[in-house]
Amino acid sequence: MKGICILGATGSIGVSTLDVVARHADLYKVIALTANNNIDVLYEQCLIHHPEVVVVVDESKAQAFKEKLKNSTVSDIKVLSGVKALEQVATLDNVDSVMAAIVGAAGLLPSLAAAKAGKIVLLANKEALVMSGTIFMQAIAESGAQLLPIDSEHNAIFQCMPAGYKTGMQAKEARRILLTASGGPFREMPVDQLVNVTPDQAVAHPNWDMGRKISVDSATMMNKGLEMIEACILFDMNPDQIQVVIHPQSVIHSMVDYVDGTVLAQMGNPDMRIPIAHSMAWPERFDSGVEPLNIFDVGRMDFHEPNLERFPCLRLAYEAINAGGIMPTVLNAANEIAVEAFLDERVRFTDIPVIIECSMKKFEVKVADTLEIILDIDQQARIAAKQIIEELNR
Ligand code: NAD
Ligand code: MG
Q1: pTM for this entry
Q2: Domain that holds residue 35
Q3: Does residue 383 belong to any structural domain of this protein?
């Protein structure tokens, strides 16, 4: 029996994780759940899974949640609040596995705490890894933690790696990764119409049902840019060994090209419960609740090279990782601010890459080898991006 802590339990990945947990109550016990402020969803989850402790980051929502629990059947659940409590529950002694599913930089400190505490880290929170690659992997290596990728592409790549492979290692016989992408909702929209895209159009992904931030990232293809950086860090590869492939059917979730010419692919329906169940059962396998893939319904699979003019965010991600040091941290922070402004209808869809590129130009490359530097650059890049948004709106 393993104890699990789910950081970001009320989000898209959190909900899918609890769906898998419910199928394997003999193997997993929910110790801790966390939410930013969605106490209604958290309450329903508590009634079903009865964790020992929950974190509601927002102080006043945490108070309201305590009231809500008082007359319930789960009134013994401990309620904590504040960001420090996230680290506290991620490192509890009876927690074996931590699902890191908070969106954005807010997930860095608790995910890193789980890594330092030697937990089995199930990593969905790609932004944490992109902003702190070197120190995150160092923490994993030093504590002996197990890092298992939840992002469907990286989970696919991990599954295609040689037997005994551990994340962070270099698989010498693997010469290339083919990182697949659906191309998002605007894959074929005329480029001159992208300027008028609305938040509702951008979050309506053709194949995957996800949170709002990652849905916008998929529409700009920054998601693939972040994933390319994520792949360089997880699999110790150079950016030029990672080829992004547009594959609109989203049936192949990525491929590994070996020196002998073998290409291994992982396939399945586009449902995050597959990578979640894979990592929760690893090195065994168990039921995820996902329907078997009907290959006849799939019928055909297409592959195209991405157009970097249509998707400048992907180009910026290559520029950031090639520059190295703090640049991926700057890229990530500026992107978070730009996406938030787009969702609030303060900037246009096509402003997103402009904001990121202008932010990156404001920074000189330097090493990012301490947490202090990373957190400081993250803050500075957010301020720079906000200034650029103000200038755009003037
Ligand atoms: P989501 O928006 O649906 O959920 C985010 C979760 O994080 C919620 O539980 C929310 O309460 C919590 N949260 C948000 N801001 C917070 C803050 N400041 N402090 C503490 N908690 C906070 O997001 P999602 O789609 O589930 O994505 C979560 C992560 O997983 C992201 O990093 C995303 O890139 C990654 N991911 C998601 C998918 C997917 O299918 N949704 C696929 C691959 C990777
Ligand atoms: Mg992905």
Answers
A1: 0.98
A2: 2-149
A3: no
